[in-house]
From TrEMBL:
Keyword NADP part of the UniProt annotation: yes
HAMAP family per record: QueF_type1
GO CC terms, sorted: cytoplasm
Protein name: NADPH-dependent 7-cyano-7-deazaguanine reductase
Organism: Nitrosomonas aestuarii
Keyword Nucleus attributed: no
Enzyme active site: 34 (thioimide intermediate), 41 (proton donor)
Gene symbol of the encoding locus: queF
Length: 140
């Protein structure tokens, strides 16, 4: 597998296709370029999905995310495009992408998009825990 940015997303078979389960990913280093100013935009992406027959392979996802580094895109457009590309390859039961863009001109932007497979009905919610934001920075 290459180590260069790529729009190619790889998948692997869901090992537990009979069960609904949540896959939660945090991608804290998303970067694209503002189409108006040319300045970099930085975001943390939070990806949650319930797979159907396929799961996304992590290294290909990382290279896919890197591929936006030099692309000009509005926050709303790039968030929807990432979700759309994931829906095309995964065909998940459910998927939600949250893009939390860092402050620009005193404004934080959050874009949340989701997709539900036609006919899929979620199981009733049992909230056992939530995922706290992860960081490599030690907080005192």
């Amino acid at each position: 597998m290459s180590t260069k940015p790529s729009k190619h997303l790889e998948t692997f078979p869901n090992p537990f296709v009979k069960r609904d389960y949540q896959i939660h990913m945090e991608i804290p280093e998303f970067t694209c370029v503002c189409p108006k100013t040319g300045q970099p935009d930085f975001a943390s992406l939070i990806l949650d999905y319930i797979p159907d027959k396929k799961c996304v392979e992590l290294k290909s996802l990382k290279l896919y995310i890197w591929s936006y580094r030099d692309e000009a895109a509005f926050h709303e457009a790039v968030t929807n495009q990432v979700l759309e590309d994931l829906v095309v390859v995964l065909k998940p039961r459910y998927i939600r992408l949250t893009a939390r863009f860092f402050v620009r001109g005193g404004i934080f932007t959050n874009v949340i998009v989701d997709h539900r497979k036609s006919g899929w009905k979620p199981q009733s919610c049992i909230s056992l825990h939530s995922f706290a934001e992860q960081s490599n920075i030690k907080r005192y």
